[in-house]
Design goal:
Immunoglobulin-like, five-stranded antiparallel β-sheet, five-stranded mixed β-sheet, 2 helices, 10 strands
């Protein structure tokens, strides 16, 4: 009977040991400021803090931001550790519009999901500068001048016809 008690106590202790080892083993990621919207092709410099128990900044070694598109393809952006404890900086770029999900790796604390991000289409298009772009305003001015000359000429001809009658 004593043997069964010892085995039972040891079994419970061994089962509880992993719980003790990971007690307090969670963290979350908090970004300083995020843009109001994200645009495809735009690069964004983001700064964040990894907080143990959601309160205390903690260094986690290497951290990265992962962007996952609708097909499940993952893009990874390595973060740079800043001098302040638990602080990181990363530059991310969304290559195309659509609904993305993202997450931040936090070392031994695992990955913190950040939820969905809606990325809009890029509206900024670089204007192509043609070497002949100066030609259009000149051609327009010449056309307006020729039309004005024709109007004046037609008006003179009409006056001559009215006087001849």
């Amino acid at each position: 009977m004593a043997r069964i008690r010892i085995v039972l106590v040891l079994s419970v202790a061994l089962l509880a040991l992993p719980g003790w080892a990971v007690a307090g083993g969670w963290a979350l990621t908090s970004f300083d400021e995020l843009p109001s919207d994200f645009e495809a092709g735009g690069s964004y410099d983001l700064t964040y803090t990894v907080l143990q128990h959601g309160v205390n900044p903690v260094d986690v070694g290497q951290s990265e931001v992962r962007l996952i598109d609708g097909n499940g393809d993952v893009m990874t952006f390595g973060a740079t550790r800043l001098p302040e404890r638990g602080r990181y900086q990363v530059t991310v770029t969304f290559p195309e519009s659509g609904l993305w999900t993202w997450e931040v790796t936090q070392g031994d604390f695992g990955t913190h999901p950040m939820g969905p991000i809606s990325v809009r289409s890029g509206t900024t298009v670089a204007a192509a500068v043609s070497p002949l772009s100066w030609l259009l305003p000149i051609a327009l001015a010449i056309t307006i001048g020729l039309v004005a000359v024709q109007i004046v000429d037609l008006t003179r001809q009409r006056r001559r016809l009215i006087r001849a009658d």
